Amino acid sequence: MTPPAPPVTKRRVRGDGVDLAVYEQGDRSNPTLLLVHGYPDTHAVWDEVAGRLAGRFHVVRYDVRGAGASSRPFGSRRYTFDYLMSDMRAVLDATAPERKVHLVGHDWGSIQSWEAACTMPDRFASFTSISGPCLDHVAHWMRRNLARPTPANLRRAAGQAIRSWYIYFFQTPLLPELLWRAGMAGPFSKALQLGEGIPVRDGHPARTMARDAAAGVGLYRANMIRRLRRPRDRRTDVPTQVIVPTRDLFVSPHLVGGLAGRVPNLSLRPIAAGHWVPRSHPGVVARWIIEHVTGVQGGPLSAAESRALARARVGGNRRPFEGSLVVVTGAGSGIGRATALAFAERGAEVVAADLDLSTAQRTAELAGLLGPAGHAFQVDVADPTAMEDFAKSVLHDHGVPDVVVNNAGIGMAGAFLDHTADDWQKILDVNLWGVVHGSRLFAKQMVERGQGGHIVNTSSAAAFTPSRALPAYATSKAAVLMLSECLRAELKGQGIGVSAICPGIVNTNITRTSRFVGQGKDEEERSRQRVARAYARRGFGPDRVAERIVAAVRDDRPVVPVTPEARLSYLASRIAPGVMRRLARLDVG
Ligand code: NAD
Q: Does the annotation mark 39 as catalytic?
């Protein structure tokens, strides 16, 4: 049972011409955390996070000027960064004199915390920014994108410009204040509930929201346009982690691009969440603050925590999957190996698992050369106990994976009446149960971690191409496809994507290991060689499937037929199933 959070004591601190309501929680002899709230919130937006941290930190919060129980100065001139910095200094002097504190900001609290981390770095031991960029960095980022107007850069710049619609609106004199006072607080709370799934609770949104929001418009008027037009050269050496909600409706996740040039000690923590992540994922936010602070202090971390922290650190040249942990089964050969290497090439740390340890080791070695690190595991995906142990080891040694590719599989061809019960058992154990175990065990870890993720299951074009030659194999792959669709529906709400990959004919070792049931040894060997030659002639390599797998994760695609014949079959199975049934009768064995 978690112990109850220590009580909160309230005091008043004199800021720059204002009275600030300051809230302290936890033992003062512990390291101090300063949590700064955004707009239109009060200190109470942090309740859940603060409650989780107050056992090991001295947690300080305050209502910024204009909000909650602090004074509301009149006129936007009183909301410039200069005033905000004086207020923050006053709070620090009163609550943590002569010591460096760990700063955490959300939304406008993060915007002003960037100003603090860049202009008074001596006061801070670390900084965690959530959904509130440095305005000067945003201005430089916009200019960089517009100076190189490639379609991607223009899309990113436009994406942020659209997300900032309310900033332009807040520049209108009086109207925003009138709207807030006329009752916009109610619809706002409803939108928060419907849009982000954040229920109204005591303290948030605050009862004072209409007044807070009307006064807080001053933050936008006093600072936004001025800084965006004439940005300063803001940099900081304070160890900084940026929590990046990838579904933020107001702040584009792309804004972190190029940040490493201005913040040398930078970690990024993407999370599949909306803007109010301290309310929607307080456990994750608290854990990341603890890890970041502990890492900065050089304190003890578990092996998995250290690795997660190391992955979050940003090098100079950021690659798309840098900071991600990717697990691939059947990674010793073919599509699995190519996928492991494709992720490694894009910056991911890779766990390569296979029945054959030596081939998994080779993949891990290559992944380590292309990316930050590769690790090999020997596991039989058909064995539930071995898979439990495997999932536990990954969790313990490396942390929760961000992407899991359940790819291990075997081939089996021949007439249905030639398949024995053992044949069925074998193929379903590997092709279906292997995917069930991998999805079940790792999805559970992803859900518990609460940061989203992605599961890729290798199905096949056989899943929607009936054939008298592949009854067991096609059945196993059809089941994988349906499992993936069901799982996708279930995990959507948790920010976990699920993709089924359906390759056609791909030149791999599968032809050399497939079973041809109902055939004697020699005949089976001849069949293998014949099919291997046909697959080689087809000439579609596993690296091209790997590219599609990476793209499926990036774009969160549900079903991905790979190769032209797979795409054609997929289409035909939907618009002309009768034709597919007729083709299924052909004897291609
Ligand atoms: P492959 O034989 O080259 O690689 C499969 C790997 O899985 C091998 O390294 C093998 O050791 C491993 N493996 C087999 N059984 C295992 C088990 N029980 N536990 C752990 N690892 C195991 O074949 P591939 O073509 O790369 O196949 C990968 C996946 O793609 C399979 O699921 C396959 O059904 C699917 N697929 C392949 C094709 C194709 O044309 N090659 C087409 C559609 C789908």
A: no
- Distance from residue 430's CA to the centre of ligand 1 (Å): 10
Structure token digits, residue 258 = 């190029």
Percent of the chain with pLDDT over 70: 98
Pinpoint the residues of the chain covered by CATH 3.40.50.720: 325-584
Residue of 39, 62, 83, 473 with catalytic role: 473
- Regarding the beta carbon of 356 and ligand 1, being less than 6 Å apart is answered yes
Whether residue 314 is predicted with pLDDT greater than 80 in this model: the reply is no
Report the top-level CATH class of 325-584: alpha beta
Tens-place pLDDT, residues 198-207:
999 999 999 9
- Measured in Å, residue 510 CA sits from the centre of ligand 1 at 6
| Per-residue model confidence (pLDDT) at position 163 | 85
Which amino acid type is present at position 201? Answer: R
Cα–Cα distance measured from residue 381 to residue 406, given in angstroms and rounded to the nearest whole number: 9
- Residue indicated by tokens 């690795």: 307
Q: Which of 508, 528, 535, 545 to mutate to test the pocket of ligand 1 (most atoms within 8 A of CB)?
A: 508
pTM of the full predicted structure?
0.80
Binning pLDDT at 50, 70 and 90, where does residue 589 land?
low
What gap in Å lies between CA 154 and CA 146, rounded to an integer? 7
Locate the ligand 1 atom nearest the alpha carbon of residue 411 and give its number.
Answer: 34
Q: What is the pLDDT of residues 147-183, one digit of tens each?
A: 888 888 888 888 888 888 888 888 888 898 899 888 8
pLDDT single digits (tens) 455-466? 999 999 999 999
- 500 forms beta bridges with 457, 559
Residue to probe by mutation, ligand 1, list 379, 410, 544, most atoms within 8 Å of CB: 410
Peptide bond before residue 205 is cis, with ω within 30 degrees of 0: yes
Which residue spans of the chain are classified as CATH 3.40.50.1820?
Answer: 9-312
Average pLDDT, the chain: 94
Q: Which helix (H) or strand (E) holds 419?
A: none
Reply yes or no on whether the pLDDT at 341 is more than 80: yes
Q: 3-state SS string over 124-143?
A: EEEEEEECCCCHHHHHHHHH
Q: Classify domain 9-312 at the CATH superfamily level.
A: Alpha/Beta hydrolase fold, catalytic domain (3.40.50.1820)
- Among all chains, which residue has been given the structure tokens 């928060």? 192
Q: Which of 529, 543, 531, 508 is nearest to 410 (CA)?
A: 508
